[in-house]
Every structure is written in structure tokens, then in C-alpha cells.
Amino acid sequence: MKFLNAVLVFLLLSGSLFAQNYNLNLLSNYPYPEGLSNVWGYTAPDGTEYALVGTTTRLSILSLADPANPVEVASVAGPNTIWREIKTWGQYAYVALDQVNVGVLIVNLQNLPNSVTSQYWTPSITVNGQSENLISSHTVTMDENGFMFINGSNVAQGQALIFDVHSNPGNPIYIGPVGNWYCHDNMMRGDTVWSGDIYEGHFSVWDVSDKSNPVLLATQNTPSNFTHNCWISDDGNTLFTTDEVADAYLTSYDVSDLGNIRELDRYRSLDNEGTGVVPHNAHVLNDWVFLSHYTDGLKIVDGHRPQNLVEVASYDTYPQAGTGFEGDWGVYPYFPSGVAIASDMTTGLWIFQPNLVRACYLEGQVTDANTGQALQGATAEFLTAPNYTTTDLSGDYAFGLATAGTYDVVYRMPGYLPDTLSAVLINGQVTVLNVQLIPLTPFVLTGRVVRADNGQPIAGATVAFDGVDFDYNVSTDGSGNFSINAFSPDNYSVFAGKWGFHTEGQTQGLFQPIQLLFELETGYRDEFAVDLGWTVGGNATAGQWERVEPTGVVANGNDLSAPDLDVQHDLGDKCYVTGDGGGNVGANDIDNGAVVLTSPAFDLTGYNDPYVRFEYWFTNFGGNGAANDSFSVRLSNGITTTVLLSETQNAYNWRGPNLYRIADFLTPTANMRLVFRAVDVPTGHVVEAAVDYVEIFDSVAIGLDPVAAVNEGMRLEVFPNPSSGGPLTVDYALNAPLSSDYAFCEVYNSLGQRLEIHQLGTASGQLALSSAWPAGVYQVVIRNGSRQQAITLVRQ
To answer: Which ranges of 104-213 does DSSP label H, i.e. alpha helix?
Structure first.
């Protein structure tokens, strides 16, 4: 799997060239000492453009007469709240404030840039015979005819409320409610209201030609059932929605026939796909969808072909890694100058000049080469750009890129031979590629697992096949043989292992019958590439140990509270982690107790001087008060249990290798076990742990092989040598890439006992050795896979 990871890393690195800020020319960034919420714009009669910025403490008004140098010309203070939503009608701005009891702020902008006047407006509203003063609201919207909607207010459980603003802008006239449920946000064009009903999980469509008697025309659930925002296209035929949840979509719908609303396409930012990024507000201008994302900045999506939504511009206003509700709240793209502004909750107001260029569209159909049958669920992916899609029921696909050029596109379908085609993409044009995939014929795959030292069969070994489209897991019989009927051709990472042996791995394409052979060295080493029989237990209510390819959890900006990768110098890409799942910090961590990971038994009676090594991860932070949780490693010989390591210190990284001489703790027996234990004392802290690359070895048996210790193109120097004490420096060069299996510097005494081990992180460099050794003769070894080099060191 390391090979497949390398391919993925290449694709991600290649894709990152496309994921940088592009097609949004930054004019300026205006910072604020307080946090921001939403933003809107106002263009004065003299043509001067103003940014109306909601902050946690006030409405801030910036002159954009020179957008490269914005100037604050007015400010209207108010109560502290994270919600300030703004819309305008004529010379007036209307600001909705939630979770405070002051009503709606009405601001007269007529005298800008010199001054503004303002008032808090708290009208009495009667709905269904009950009257309440309007004192709090979540959002405010305005149509082109001067009708205002107050949404999510304290009145009538948050129903949308219609007001006539054009007749009396300083004191709007209440008309009536829309619907009978909470409305988060909406917009109206003509006599139609498009409503984002967040807790209902749908958008609703209302005829308000008689505004005192709205009529429900249709509802439609959105993909994540948390409909936050709606915006209609310029021609009125397409509606765009967002769901305010992690990893949700901008979704387009054909609403030309409200009796047959059809979903057309979904867009999700691929910069941070799967990391919990939340889309927020979408606004449409000339078929461009301006989309704000928490933690992922401003995106512009080409909605000209709503059945093929393509990102064409991006700027990350919140460059810190992370998920949740931080970053870009809102965007306003409607200034006559073409300038767009975005409010970032942390980094202030951002002012851009967009470079709007229509997307390059790639569309077509994928079919079976033998039958012509449409293939649903096939994937099409650009090899050097971060975009992919899957085919629908008719085998059709549609996606694209912002930048014209010639691109290789790979098409895949389980059970079919992948195909790579070249596509010439041109801005504003549709390139059609129809693809016929050749079906693969399953076959019988056989193999054998034996001991490397004598060729004897290994019964009960596990053989795992990890393919692009298929996975298999089998065990060997009493003769060490295994067989898989109807084996699907694919590229696989294959691992064979059994407790008491070193797991072996191969990466290869398996497209025809072949006899596989695995020769396993004896010894206890587990890199968790296959399941070798560890058990889990404990009394925690969440966060149990899992053997998985870990999903990182970002905390505190760029830190990882849980690992995103296993230990990278071992075999495979799996490790044991607590409560894997990614998402927000604390969502899958250990809660209210202990989680315990126990090894299978191992027999050390034939060992001369056994050691144990492992690498671990432990984070412990946040919550109330000082973090008080722990991670420990225990060793048992079936009679006595001792603690090798007890950790309470937080660190956002893998730690190790950690090396322990077993005889220093207890007597080796035939019934040894290792126990890893992580504990959450129930006071609400974040607790995550992981374990990888566990090995038990005999320091005499693993001593330097004098035959192999010849110069293999490596450079190794130790100085000073001879040494009379003090620190020692190793200077090395491997003259080859780092091995994914084993790349270390080790020190042995004259008995062949390993005294130190250091992981090599680079192919050349320097590292420090201990200064505490007694006088004597030592061997310093560098190992890189099967290659090694040694030098004799004398301590006087």
C-alpha cells in the first residue's frame, strides 16, 4: 500500500498546483480586532462603493473608493453577537442581530462618507392572533421591489415575515408570515420566494403574488438535509442551495417545472475533501456562483451549465488548517465595478477583482466495450488536476477544469480494465469523450506461505489483498496454501503475515493466473498491515482501538490531535488508533474510561537478551482545567506485569522508536504480552492515542552480519573516533532512497547487543549518539532495507 500511497501523494502534489489561490486578484485585506460575520455592499448615488461589514460588536462601513486602500468612514456600535446579517434598499441598510434583544438595526446611509444615522426597530408583530415585539432575528433578505423578509426571529417560531420597505424605508410595514416552520434564509424574485428551511432539511417554493396569503408550490430535500441558503439563477430556471454541514455540497436543481424538480449536479471543494469543510453562503451573478466556505475561503463556481458545476476561482482567506465554524462567512459580488468582497470571521475583510473565465467542460458516456451497456458508477479522474466524477444511471459523466490544456483522464470501473485518454480542454467549450471499458475475466489465484529459513509451510497465515476496486482476505491451510476463486483482476498491495513472523508485502498488478509465494522470517514484528490477533477492551464509552489507515483530526490550527498517516518507515499504511473517523476535534476521541490493546502471547524462552520496541502517539488537551489523562505501555510475563512507559505529556506527532531491554523489567517467559492502555479521566479533555511498528527481537541474534557489512555505496563516519567521552556525531549518506521497510542507525557493543536505534528521516545527514557508553569497542551500523554499512568505534 505504500506504493499506492506514493501514487496518491503524487496526485495530491500535482493537484496542489491547481488548488492554489487563482482567478481572484487580491486588492486588499482589511483586518479587524474583533471577529466578523456577514457582509453586504452599498453603491452611493455618486458611484462610490461601500462595504457594510458585520462584526461581533458593530456595523463597520468601509469606503472602497480605492479598493486597494479601504477606509472606515462610519461605525454603528451595538450588543455583542456573532450574527449580523445585512441587506440594503435604496439609501438604507437593515441589519438582523440574533441572540440579542434589540430588534433590527436600520441605518440611513444618505450622508456617507461623512456620517450615518441609525435606530433599532422593534415593531409589534401579530401572527395567528398572538402579538410579540420583534427583538431578535437570524437573517434578513430583500427583493428587487423593496419587500423585506425577516427570518429566524423570536416571533412565530422563526417563520419568514414579510415587510413592505419601499413605502416607508425608515419604518417598514408588516404584511404577514410565510409558511409554518422556521426559515433560516430565503430570497424572492418577482412573486416567488425560495426558502432555505434548515431544520426541515428542504427548500420550499412559495407564490406570494398575494403577499398576505402565500401559497406553497413545492418542497425539495437537499443532499445533507440541512438547507442553509438558496439562490436562483438569472434566468429563473436553476436554483442553487448549500447545506451547512461538514463535507456538504453546492447543489443545482432544474426548477423550470415545479411539479418535476430535478437535481442536476453537486459541487464540493476538492482542496480539502473529506476533512469536514462546511459550505456557507452562495450568491449568483451572471451564472457565476460565489460561494463562501468556512475554513476554505471563497470559491467561484461556473453555473453556466448547471448540470456540470466547475470551480473556476479560489482564494483561501483562512489558510490555517482546520474544520468547523471559522473562516469565510459571506461574500458580496454585486458592485458595478466588478469588485467582490468576502468577510472572514478571523482574518477580516478581503477585497478581490475576480478574473471570470468560463470553465472547460468534459462530458461523455462510459459503456461496456463488449455489450455497449452503460456503466453506472464508473469514475473519471484527471491525473494531474484535483477533480473527478462518477457516471450516472445512463453511464453519463460531466466535470471540468478552469484552465485550458491537454490532460490525461483515467476511467475506472470495478471488473474492467482501466483506460487513460487524452482530453483537449478549451474555456467555454464542451469536450466530449465517450469511453468503452474492456471487462476483465475473474480467475483462480493461488499461493503459498512458507518459512524463509527452511521452506516449511506456515498454516493459518493471513493473506490480505488491498486493491483499487477489490479487497480479499484469506488464510492458509495446513500445507501453507491458499486459493481464491473468481479473483478480480486489479492492482493490489498484498500482505502475508502471522504472529511470530515478519509480515511480507508486495505491490503488483494481478491480471492473470499466478502462483504467489511468500517467505516469512521468524520473529515478532507487527506493522499492522494484516490482522495478527490483537484484542481490544476497556470500559470507555467511546474511542475504542481500531486497526485502520488513520484519518487525521486537525486541532489548534496546524496540529493533528490524531495521526493522518501511520509510521511511514514500516510496511503498509495501517496502525492501531483510538476512535478513528476524522471530523471535528473530540468527535471520536476516548471518553469516560480506558481503552486497552493487548498483543497475542509471545514466547521468549529461546531468546538470549530480548528487547521490545514500538512507536506511539498520544494527545491530551483542551476541555476544563489541566489535562489529566494518560497513556501507558505494560509488559506481562503471565506472572508479573510491569510498566514500561507512562505518558501524560501531549504531543502532536509520532514518538519513537522506544526501545526497552526486557530483562531490566521482568523475567522472560513463554507467555509474554504487551498491553497499550489510554485513559480518559471524565473531565472533558480530548484524548487520542495510536500504536505502530511493534517488534520484539533478540539483541544477540540481530547483531551485525559481518558478510553483509561491506561498503554498498554508503558513506558512514563517526567523530571523534577514537573518543575519550562526550557527544558523538554520525555523518552518513545512503546513496539510495529511504527504504519503506527499514532505515535506521544502530549501535552494538562487543557482545552484539543493540544499545541504540535511531530512525533515519533523510537519505543523508547527521545525528547525535549517546555520550554515556563505557570504554570499549562498538559497531555503528546504518541500515537501509537490505543494504547496510558499519564502522568500528573505540571509546577510550
So the answer is: none
